[in-house]
């Protein structure tokens, strides 16, 4: 699914498909285009996909939880290119202040109250009978003789 085919969708359908609003998509695109020009300022090979398609590929991977192989086949690139592209997009957006989450110290300094819910998800051993050399197996062997 290429960006050219979905850019004419209504805003609500665009959000349902990509997982983000169109304005957020455009903001992401602006951040990535700035980072992309810095990345290719010294030269290098041009990417096979347009920046819009690369961002759409990353959003599709995150939203639909598809494997890199499936996403790469949809866009006609190799699996390693898909992986590198998605990781670059994630790291670039995380580093930008508009998409960065506040750290623990910032949360502690704020006046907002947070409610924490802890779930105990520790592993517990399954109760099984002990394996010993006695028992039914030995009795069966004696009966065979």
Kindly summarize this structure in a few lines.
The protein has 145 residues and is mostly helical. It has helices at 3-6, 11-18, 22-39, 51-64, 68-75, 79-95, 104-109, 136-144.
Order of helices and strands: HHHHHHHH
Q: In this structure, how is the largest beta sheet organized? A: none
**Percent of sequence in beta strands:** under 5%
**Count of extended strands:** 0
Mean pLDDT: 84
Could you list the spans in which at least 5 consecutive residues all have pLDDT below 50?
none
Rg calc? 26 Å
Q: Please report the number of helical segments.
A: 8
Q: Tell me the quaternary state.
A: single chain
Output the structural class: mainly alpha
Q: What's the overall geometry? A: extended
Termini separation comes to 70 Å
> Helix amount, in percent?
55-70%
What does this structure look like?
This protein has 8 helices and no strands. It has 145 residues and is mostly helical. The protein has a domain at 3-101. The longest helix is centred in the first third of the chain and has 18 residues, at 22-39. The chain is extended, with a radius of gyration of 26 Å. The mean pLDDT is 84.
Fill in the keyword field for this structure:
mainly alpha, 145 residues
Helices and strands, with pairings:
Blueprint: H1 3-6, H2 11-18, H3 22-39, H4 51-64, H5 68-75, H6 79-95, H7 104-109, H8 136-144
């Amino acid at each position: 699914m290429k960006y050219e085919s979905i850019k004419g969708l209504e805003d609500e359908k665009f959000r349902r498909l990509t997982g983000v609003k169109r304005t957020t998509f455009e903001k992401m695109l602006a951040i990535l285009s700035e980072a992309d020009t810095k990345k290719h300022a010294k030269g290098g090979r041009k990417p096979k996909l347009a920046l819009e398609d690369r961002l759409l590929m990353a959003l599709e991977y995150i939203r639909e939880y598809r494997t890199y192989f499936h996403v790469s086949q949809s866009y006609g690139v190799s699996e390693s290119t898909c992986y590198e592209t998605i990781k670059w997009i994630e790291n670039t957006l995380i580093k930008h202040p508009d998409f960065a989450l506040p750290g623990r110290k910032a949360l502690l300094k704020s006046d907002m109250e947070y409610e924490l819910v802890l779930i105990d998800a520790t592993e517990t051993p399954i109760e099984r009978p002990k394996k010993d050399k006695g028992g039914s197996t030995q009795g069966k062997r004696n009966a065979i003789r």
